[in-house]
Amino acid sequence: MVEVKNAYRGYAFLVASFLLFTAIVIVGLFHLEERGTLYFALLGGTSALFTFALFSYALSVYSFLKEEYAKKKSLWTFLFDFLADLRLAIFIMVVLAIFSMLGSTYVQQNQPIEFYLDRFGADVGYWLWRLWITDVFRSWYYIGLIVLLAINLIACSYKRLPRVWVQTFTKERFQRLDENMERHLKAISIEVNPSKEKVARFLGKLGFRVFMEEEGGKTYFYGEKGRYARLGVYVVHIGLLVIMAGGLIDAIWGIRGTVIIPEGSRSDTLFIPAKEKAIKLPFQIELEEFRIVSYEEEFQRKGKTKETPFKDAIASFESDIRIIQDGKAVSEGMTAVNSPFDFGTYRIFQATYGLTGDAGRAKIAIFDKKLAPQDPQKAFVGEVELKAGKVSEFKNMLLAIDRSTLNIEDEQKGFEGELKPALVIKVLMDGKAYDVPVVYSPELTVFAQSVIPQLAEFPYVFFLVDFEPQFFSGLQVSRQPGTPIIWLGSILVVGGMILAFYTVHRKVWARLEGNTLKVAFWSHKFKEEFKNSFLKSLEELRHENPSHGKEPNTS
User: Distance between CA 322 and CA 334 in Å, rounded?
Assistant: First the structure.
């Protein structure tokens, strides 16, 4: 027993030194811009402390386990006891918690290696990548720790469940209150009117299921309630195992990647940055329209009017999408920030956006070329709106945006929001195709259209009235087949906790002999509270009788 306590004491020192060392490493990697002499002194000190704790604990455990193995002389028993050890479970959960914290808080997951090299520097970024910290939840060691924790949980349950099962659900729990049990359970005695029916009704009124047996002028009672409460912790264990199974299914067969789609286009290529590979989805995602929503627009949608200096700031961005399968649209909807779109087992998130460098929408005014110099008003034929990737019809013409640029003078400035667009409109009219240039400046437009020989016989002049650049939408697509299993496990965990914490297993043994009733009771939890309430109920039973007898002995 002393050796076991010493082993536990060394274990606490090991865990504490490990957590301290890990904290110093995390602070240095992710919180300090410069690491000076003081930091490296702390790192060296905590490293030495952890190393000392590890070796000293390993030596004490080795000697302890050597003696235990010699006692049991069975490799299976020895390994089983090791896997069922609570200390193993605590250490696994501590390590899992650290890796989970790194993956969810400090290191953004599933990005290209260039992202980590740029953010953390060449050395740290490279090792984060090599050690799978950049995709920690799918790493071999994280999965291995989950499996080891599941084995530990199964071993713990298997080791403890048989004894609980015998005490709670087998016939062995039906024990008589004989002299040995009376001394062991410290039974009390009261004088009652000799009526076994009254005793049975009394126990039943308190919620006990009563079993009764008569022998040799004595009547034995056994009552119990809430026995399923003893299974609550095992239901929680099963729920945790189900959650782990769902997590493993997600880690092994789940996918998470990015689909980049320009407005008016569709794609089925999912790029997985962490693995630097692309896979094909079983459907295509078509981006019908992308929108940037300001705070002012968001307030207007909600029917509110609110003056704010940030009214033009971006509140959200959203995409109208369609799911195309076998050439047909099978689903459509919107995905926005914090509002994913679900399709089957896939979930589509709005992740990012940007400019493609092309036109997204353009409104064109059309004038008759012959009438325009004399009377522009009479020359006006109408307006037509063109969208990227779409064909528009106007009178006897089919029109589409063929090529475009955001800034004809400086393409880079176009990506920065300084728009001076130029487009080439593909026009099909009377069986002939024309490429009609349209520039942000009307003068440049007239000049460009006048110098192209192929447009000499084209009867119209086009002018740019309105223009919007084309955006691309970066959609994060994930498939997590283990999610329903995780939900089932969560329900089991909650149900098990309710069973364990809100119900109590209690037992009562009684022996009626003449006018004397011997009673013993037991409660799995809240023992003192149950004792007080049960003694109070016994007082009420005693006072129901014409002969009170002696006071209950509660010692």
Answer: 9
